[in-house]
Amino acid sequence: MFSLTFLRFLGSRWQAGARAMLLLFCVWLFWVPPAASRDNSQAPAFEMEKELRGFSWLSIHPDGERWLLTECTDRLGQQLGSCYLFLYNRKTLTYQRYALDPGYMYADGQFSPSGQTIIAIRRPLPTQNTHEEKHRVYANGEILLMAIDGSDLRVLPIPKGFVKRPAMSPDGTKVAYWRAATTRPPGARTWLADFDLWEFDLASGENRLFAGEHRFFLANGVQYTSSDEVLVNADSPTSIPMSIFEYHAKYGYNQVYFLKRGMRQLPPPAYAEVKSVRAAAIANKNRIYLLGEPPPHGISIVEMAENGVKQRWRVPYLTRDGISSVFGSPREAYLLFTYPSVPLRSSGPATGIGMFDLQEKRWFPISIQQPEVALPLMPEK
Questions:
Q1: What is the rounded distance in angstroms from the CA atom of residue 100 to the CA atom of residue 50?
Q2: From first to last of its 381 residues, what are the pLDDT tens digits of the chain?
Q3: What is the domain range of residue 266?
């Protein structure tokens, strides 16, 4: 009798625990950030492209007309697909593919501040679709420099590794980039982890940490704001003496930082007055634009001023994941952004490109020719 009663007691406790776990899961699944839930304004109209592509990174030339695009595709002959660098002119609508060594895949293409140089990542092509092969590919990443016409290509003499998102200093003498320390296990949504920011001096050949060892779980864009300061997009530093949940709650889920060269201690995330800042872009003559959720509004593009928020614009409703990244035109009054498709493709997320005109306050999609019709861009001999 005692055993039966005890078993019934355990069963009731287990059911109560299971119900509690189910309730927590439902709250997590359907949770909407408070800022978004209080915003009753109407999202602007935006018609998504019917056929999304594999755009993973963009850069806008200082002239505002030329765009450097990284696109991953299986339509150019590689059995497992590859990633390429393309040059697009939004005035002439010409689309060209850099004719680089076909033994590599290319990523994170970025114009230098002068517009005369391109910096990018290259990795060896995969030979099979396995976790071990993906590790080999990423572990052999290199940073390359070349002229805008594809000439004078050289690889920086730094150790090969899990490198990402290089950017050049305003005077063209240094390159800042992320280096990851570890990879994630099979099945994880992201691939690399434990990022720190490094910097290579093109004159002296010195390669060292830009700031302290902070071990960010995620890392994205890098933009110099001066000769010794960068604005970075990163999340979840694992070096902090508190849990990530406490850290996010304290700093409003913001994911942008200003880092100064040699700074050992991690500063708080920037722009506390704008919650859930997930991306930042420097554009329109050095103005800073954020993708975040300024209370009490929903997801918006926010222009910052020295004394706080200057103005904001609601973003269109695209997908549940919304805008992926934001890119600024250095001197022109527009932003580019990428957005993912739903559901995701088996080969990775399909993405579209959109533009926000800061003068006309208008959002519209960008349609670019298919990669197979892009003309090869080869340096003149």
A1: 30
A2: 434 343 343 344 444 444 444 433 443 333 334 333 345 467 888 888 877 899 999 999 999 999 999 999 988 987 777 999 999 999 999 999 999 999 999 999 999 999 999 999 999 999 998 989 999 999 999 999 999 999 999 999 999 999 999 999 999 999 999 999 988 888 777 778 899 999 999 999 999 999 999 999 999 999 999 999 999 999 999 988 888 889 988 998 999 999 999 999 999 999 988 999 999 999 998 899 999 988 888 889 999 988 888 999 999 987 766 788 999 999 999 999 998 875 544 445 688 999 999 999 999 999 999 999 999 998 876
A3: 54-377
Q: What is the CA radius of gyration of the chain?
A: 23
Reported pTM: 0.86
- For the chain, the domain total comes to 1
Determine the Cα–Cα distance for residues 108 and 222; give it in Å rounded to an integer.
Answer: 11
Whichever domain contains 287, its CATH number is 2.120.10.30
Q: What angle do CA 99, 104, 108 make, to 5 degrees?
A: 80
